[in-house]
């Protein structure tokens, strides 16, 4: 009787093991649904890896595709700046100080393309084509402001704040991500400009020494995702 019981238990365990293996294969090979699938397939920018490609239209109706910009003659780097004209930390760098304009100006003739991106959803603070067109003129912004109302590009890059800065080298690899400078106050500019340092290293053919910092500013005003 004891031997029969042991045999039955062994058979049951083998059956459970086999069923588990089949279930594991089904999970691995079968279609992924819902939130898990989104997490599995979502491409998020990482320093040291290829920057995700995207296509957006600016406030003047011009369309920009990242890989096409990188393939332009003489382009050595691309700067992406997450933008919200109503954020005090953005105003700090354009109105109270001229950090963005100065940094852009120092590299615009050295093969560096700069693009601001507004990922604010319709109705959110600082969002909207009309407002951003007006601000571009008022602040004399010389580079395009791209509109990303869906927030898809912002989420793809993991943009958390305005500003949140990304520097992409000429090979399309993300070389820096983080803050514009080392002073997180809403008024004073920092002593260390991380974007300037990253661009200087890239143009010199050197490794970017500080490749990631913690961004500061207002939260990106994304809309809700269904």
Give a description of the structure.
By secondary structure, this protein is an alpha+beta fold. It folds into two domains: about 30 residues; about 180 residues, Glutaredoxin, CATH 3.40.30. About 40% of the residues lie in helices and about 15% in strands. It has eight helices and nine strands. It has a seven-stranded mixed β-sheet with strand order 2-1-5-4-3-7-8. The chain is globular. The N and C termini lie far apart (about 60 Å). The N terminus is likely disordered.
Give a quick set of tags describing it.
alpha+beta, 7-stranded mixed beta sheet, two-stranded antiparallel sheet, 9 strands, 16% strand, globular, disordered N terminus
Q: How many domain units? A: 2
Order of helices and strands: HHEEHEHHEHEHEEEHE
Computed CA radius of gyration, to the nearest angstrom: 24 Å
Number of helices: 8
Which class best fits the helix and strand makeup?
alpha+beta
Main sheet, how many strands, which sense, barrel? 7 strands, mixed
How many strands appear in the DSSP assignment? 9
Looking at CATH, the homologous superfamily of the largest domain is: Glutaredoxin
Morphology: globular
CATH class type of the largest domain: Alpha Beta
- The helix content is 25-40%
The N- and C-terminal alpha carbons lie at a distance of 59 Å
What's the average pLDDT?
Answer: 86
Any idea of the CATH topology of the largest domain?
Glutaredoxin
**What strand order characterises the main sheet?**
2-1-5-4-3-7-8
In the predicted model, the low-confidence regions spanning at least 5 consecutive residues are 1-41
Query: Which percent range describes the beta-strand content?
Result: 15-25%
- The second-level CATH architecture of the largest domain is 3-Layer(aba) Sandwich
């Amino acid at each position: 009787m004891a031997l029969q019981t042991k045999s039955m238990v062994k058979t049951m365990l083998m059956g459970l093991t086999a069923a588990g293996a089949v279930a594991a294969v089904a999970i691995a090979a079968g279609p992924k649904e819902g939130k898990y699938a989104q997490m599995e397939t979502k491409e998020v920018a990482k320093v040291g890896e290829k920057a995700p490609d995207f296509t957006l239209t600016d406030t003047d109706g011009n369309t920009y595709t990242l890989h096409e910009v990188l393939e332009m003659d003489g382009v050595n780097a691309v700067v992406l700046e997450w933008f919200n004209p109503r954020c005090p930390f953005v105003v700090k760098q354009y109105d109270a100080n001229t950090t963005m304009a100065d940094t852009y100006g120092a590299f615009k003739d050295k093969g560096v393309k700069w693009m601001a991106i507004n990922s604010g959803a319709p109705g959110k603070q600082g969002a909207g084509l009309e407002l951003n067109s007006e601000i571009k003129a008022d602040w004399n912004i010389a580079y395009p402001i791209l509109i990303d109302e869906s927030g898809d590009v912002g989420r793809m890059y993991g943009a958390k704040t305005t500003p949140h800065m990304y520097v992409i080298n000429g090979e399309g690899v993300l070389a820096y991500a983080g803050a514009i400078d080392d002073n997180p106050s809403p008024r004073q500019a920092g002593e260390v400009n991380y974007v300037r340092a990253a661009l200087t290293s890239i143009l010199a053919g050197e490794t970017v020494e500080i490749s990631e910092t913690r961004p500061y500013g207002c939260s990106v005003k994304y809309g809700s995702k269904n």
